[in-house]
Amino acid sequence: MLRFLVRRLIGVVAILLVVSGITFYLFFAASGADDVVRLSCGRNCTPEMREVVRQNLGLDKSLIEQFWIFISGIFTGRTIGDKACDAPCLGYSFANNENVFDKLADRFPVTLSLAIGAILLCTTIGIGMGVLAALKRGKTTDKVTTGVALLSGSAPIYVLGPLFIYVFVQQLGWLDRPTDPPSFFGDPGGWASALLLPWICLMTIHMAMYCRLTRSTMVDVLSEDYVRTLKAKGLSGRSVYLKHAFRGALSPIVTVLGVDIGVLMSGTIITESTFSLHGIGMLAVTSVVDSDLPMMMGVVMVAATFTMLANLAVDMAYAAIDPRVRLS
Amino acid sequence: MLDKTGVGAVPKEIVGRSPSQLAWRRFRKDRIGMVSTAIVVFFFVVAFAAPLISKLYGKNPYTRYGQTEPGLLNSRGFPIAPNGGMSGDYWFGIEPTLGRDVLTQLVYGIRTSLLLAIIVVLIVTITGTILGITAGYLGGRTDYVISRVIDTLLAMPSQLFFIAFTPIALALFVSDRETTPTWLRAMALIIVLSLFGWCRIARILRGQVLSMREREFIEAAKISGASSRRIIFRELLPNLWTPILIVATIEVPTYVTTEAALSFLGVGMTEPTPDWGRMIHKGFENMQSDVTYMAFPAAAMVIFVLAFNLFGDSVRDALDPKANR
User: Fold this and answer.
1) Structural class in CATH, domain A101-323
2) pLDDT tens digits for B29-50?
3) Counting CB atoms within 10 angstroms of each CB, which of A106, A158, A263, B106 has the fewest?
4) A296 min Cα distance to partner chain B (Å)
5) A-B interface: how many C-beta pairs under 8 angstroms?
6) CB atoms within 10 A of CB A41
7) Residue B301: which of B248, B245, B254 has the closest Cα?
8) With contacts defined as CB-CB under 8 Å, which chain A residues touch B283?
9) Can you give the pLDDT of all 328 residues of chain A as single tens digits?
10) pLDDT tens digits along B178-194
11) φ, ψ (nearest 5 deg) of residue A78
12) 8 Å CB contact of A303 and B157
């Protein structure tokens, strides 16, 4: 187990290095040193200032050296020009000179809150619907849930979000327009109500996958011999379905869940822009629009890290769910 | 349910039927499949006939009718007539502020999304198939390298990479972003989407080939001295058409929505190219005053995606009746 973990973590770090290397190359080298200086320095930039920027960013050094400075800055910190940049240093924004890491840390709670609520809602409701449909296979309940799942999975978030805002906020006035949530620990009620609409939206879209997947794997599992044996042994229906059969159906669900957690934690770009929430995803869009290279680099690194870690967590979860899986 | 349709039925006279005939029979009996196919075909026909529709209808998606003809837009730029300015002349209403015709924008917008999606699906399917078969058939070091690349790409947050790399792909072609021609922008989108898209298909095909490689008919071909080329093209590929076709069908709506999403975020197709994603974005901004402009592209998008998903399901059921739903 420990060996597996260590080996996989090394793999994660290796892939992250490759990803950051490629991203760094594409962002900084492909744009060319002059472009980078122009982006960093802004419009009213004298030739002397250009030279200072060039020196500060280390653009006169070779690419490998520049990349090394960037990577080592993450672990040891570095000084850019006359500004010190502490240990997890991802540089300073070109657009407004903010520390990239601080900015990411500042935006992260919004993304995290969005992700937690959405995942809780869509797994409970999606999986619940899937189990229900599988148990009532062929009956009306099954047809209705499958139909709902199909329909809800077909509306992209940029269609569903505006629709929900129009109906529930502007017309009916049941909900407030979503805002950046206050801290969960200070004001849990306000936190939940600020994000309720985006959660419902994400749930509607993501639950379809869980519902369909749970239903199909559950149907498979229910036809297995061991389920028949359990029934013959006289176990109650609840115990057979929820304890034994459901556990057997869980592995593929966890796979999808892992992917979703990775996606949600690295910033649901479209959701955040639709509901104007200032999370990591929104930061990604603004940094792309502003050509803010260090910020883009930071967002990509954070997103890649979360995605990789979520994948790792999925593999670990397999072993916990399915005793046949041995991690090696 | 599926067993009753064609496969299990014994005709009086035994007529030989090819697998594709059987699949077609199953497909024709699938009522939802036929309806969704009709809708999908309708969207394709509209996209194809966009110039004809525009000509018969007498408007185009570029002219700002609302700004030249008085009585269409009010001083704040919103349509004067109710329901977003729907009238005998402007069937689906007119766009707020710019005053363009909604129907033609919608019709030409299908073209943008569908054309991009289909080109990407073609590229992705071809590269994915080649790389997947190569990895699965050759095995060893080649397989290892391709599989690691697939793993890495699949592990990446694709949405973020799309928006981050589209400007870079653009910068490869032009230095000044102000004057990017439309086809270059489309090219950049296609490149970025294809770059991250091939790995899903490649992974599925690799798995298929891996299990097929050990089967007797491949062994027989090898023993009888067939070349790798012959084995891949004459033995493996005919058995892989089903998964290839199924995956390709499922991918089309995915790319239609992804393209529209990029335009919605403002990193996709730009003015004046008609585009559903941008229409939805503009409709969203003006939703409180004029909800009609949002309603048409949104409804069109949902109907298209739903129909295409159902169509994909039916194609899968027809080609691969054993796959459970």
Assistant:
1) mainly alpha
2) 878 888 888 999 999 998 888 8
3) A106
4) 7
5) 115
6) 17
7) B254
8) 162
9) 788 788 888 888 888 888 888 888 877 766 666 667 767 766 667 777 777 777 777 777 777 888 888 888 788 777 776 677 777 777 777 777 788 888 888 888 888 888 888 889 988 998 888 888 888 887 888 888 888 888 887 888 888 888 888 888 877 878 777 777 777 777 777 787 788 888 888 888 888 888 888 888 888 888 888 888 888 888 877 777 777 788 777 877 887 888 788 778 766 788 888 888 888 888 888 888 777 788 888 888 888 888 888 878 877 777 777 766 665 5
10) 566 777 788 888 888 88
11) -155, 175
12) yes
Exposure string of B20-42, with b = 16+ CB inside 10 Å and e = fewer, is eebbeebbeebeebeebbebbee
Per-domain residue ranges of chain A: 2-89, 101-323
Cα gap B311→B302, rounded to integer Å: 14
CB–CB contact A155 B163 (8 Å): no
pLDDT at residue A291, as a whole number: 76
Position B119 scores a pLDDT of: 93
Backbone angles phi, psi at A80, to 5 degrees: -110, 115
A19 to chain B: which residues are within 8 Å by CB? 152, 156
Compute the C-alpha angle B175/B180/B181, nearest 5°.
140
Q: Closest partner residue to B306 among A23, A151, A308, by Cβ? A: A151
Q: Rounded CA gap, A260 and A202, in Å?
A: 11
Q: Which residue among B152, B164, B167 sits closest to A284, beta carbon to beta carbon?
A: B164
Residue whose token pair is 């978030």: A157
Residue pLDDT, tens place only, B47-65: 888 888 778 877 777 777 7
pTM (predicted TM-score): 0.81
Its ipTM equals: 0.77
Residue contact B298–A19, C-beta within 8 A = no
- Interface residue ranges in chain B relative to chain A, Cβ cutoff 8 Å: 151-152, 155-157, 159-161, 163-168, 171-172, 257, 260-261, 264-267, 277, 280-281, 283-284, 287-288, 291, 294, 298, 301-302, 305-306, 309-310, 324-325
**Smallest CA–CA distance from A212 into chain B, residue:** B325
Query: Whose CA is closest to B260, among B223, B285, B297?
Result: B297
Cis, peptide link before residue A156, omega less than 30° from 0: no
Token representation of residue B83:
């329901």
Please say whether the beta carbons of A273 and B265 come within 8 A. Answer: yes
Under an 8 A CB cutoff, do A284 and B163 touch? yes
> What is the rounded distance in angstroms from the CA atom of residue B57 to the CA atom of residue B91?
10
**What's the number of CA atoms in the CB half-sphere (13 Å) around residue B178?**
0
| Tokens describing residue A18 | 């490759």
Best A15, A158, A309, A315 member to test B by mutation, with max B CBs in 10 Å, is A158
> 3-class DSSP state for residue B290?
coil
Nearest to A296 by CA among A5, A28, A88: A28
What is the C-alpha separation between B16 and A252, in angstroms, rounded?
39
